[in-house]
Amino acid sequence: MNLMTDELRRKLPPLYDCEGLPYAYTYAKYFAAWTPHVWWVAEFDGEDTLYGFIEGFPNRWGTFSLRKLESERGPEGDGLRKTEFLSPVILAQPWSVRRWLRRRLQSMWMAWNNTSDGSDAR
Question: Do the beta carbons of residue 29 and residue 82 sit within 8 Å?
Answer without folding.
Answer: yes
